[in-house]
Structure formats: C-alpha cells, structure tokens
Amino acid sequence: MSYTVLRAEDAFWRPSNQMGVLNTDLAKQLSANTLGARLWRLTPGQASTRHRHLTQHELYVVLEGTGRIRIEHELLTLTVLSTLLIEPGCVRQIFNDTHVDALWLMVGTPPEAANTLQMTPEQIAMLYPDGPKALPPELTGA
C-alpha cells in the first residue's frame, strides 16, 4: 500500500490568480493525478470566481465558519461539516459575507484545468460567464 502525507505546516498556500483568495492545492502537492483538491480560506468580504466546470463533479465541505454559496440563482447557507455535490455545467460561487473566516475543502473529479493565463477568450467566457473577477451581489451592495 502506498500513501503520501502533506502535513499542515508543510502545505503551500497562495492567493488565487483572479480573486486573491488564499488556497492550497492539495492534489498537486500530493501528486494526485485523478482528482483536484484544494482548501480555500475566505476572509470576510472575499469570494471565489463565479464559474462552472464542463466535466468535473465538485464536492464542497465547510470546515470552518459559515458556508455561503450560490449555485445558478439559488443561494445556500451551510453550517460546519455540511457537504454539497455540484454536477458539471452548474455555475457556482462561494463567498464570505460574514465577519469570520470560512474554510472550505473542495474535491473534484476528473480534474479540470482552469488556469485563465493559458485560456482563450472563448474558454474564459464559457467557464466564467460574468468574467473571472465578478463578485456576488452580497459583496457589492447590489
């Protein structure tokens, strides 16, 4: 049996390219080639990109704080350890409109690259229908 451990103190965290949300790519650091997995720490006022995946199912788990997510036009509020599965094609966005950090675990399979620096404008428009930096109404006051 083979396994790999990534200790919390050894995980590499960085701000996301588009929204500046602190995250760590667990799958990459563990050399997991058949799934994507990240931890995302959203401070108050932060949001992920509003996006969709074409082939990837994503599992979301709230580890700390309150999980706020919009799937298409439906708004959900999730408590710690709540789990959500989102099918390919659904537009989703997590955000934090509370006063404390929210920590999410996201696992997706099959892995789907989403590096906007390497995408064509058409690919960006398909995956990010409002552009890669759109905030939800809860954070814009709209």
How would you summarize the topology of this molecule?
Blueprint: E1 14-15, E2 22-25, H1 26-29, E3 36-42, E4 57-64, E5 67-71, E6 74-78, E7 83-86, E8 92-95, E9 102-109, H2 121-127, H3 137-140
Antiparallel strand pairs: 1-2, 2-3, 3-9, 4-7, 4-9, 5-6, 5-8
Total number of helices:
3
Largest sheet: 6 strands, antiparallel
**Nearest-angstrom radius of gyration?**
15 Å
Shape by Cα distribution: globular
What is the first-to-last residue Cα distance?
A: 53 Å
Helix content: 10-25%
Neighbour order of strands in the largest sheet: 1-2-3-9-4-7
Explain what this protein looks like in three dimensions.
The protein has three helices and nine strands. It has 142 residues and is mainly beta. The mean pLDDT is 94.
Keywords:
9 strands; three-stranded antiparallel beta sheet; 142 residues
Summarize the structure.
This protein is mainly β.
